[in-house]
Amino acid sequence: MKSICEFKVGDFIEILSVNLLKYQKERMLSIGFTRGAIIEVIRIGPKKNLTVFDVRGAMIALREEESKFIYGKKI
Fold this sequence. Notes:
Blueprint: E1 2-3, E2 12-18, H1 22-30, E3 38-44, E4 50-55, E5 58-63, H2 64-67, E6 70-74
């Protein structure tokens, strides 16, 4: 189980858990980062601090501070 910021462009990931504070976790769940969701890594920023994910048809960009607490496995 790795954090989603550790995967490479083109990887498909199944979300296993979201370990954030309550208000942050609610935000992640509301934009589609739920357990069992399949996401794809679309783009990684030049300094690797920003990653763009395809979450249920929407492109969502997360900073490493948020994405390092969302865990998944490559499928």
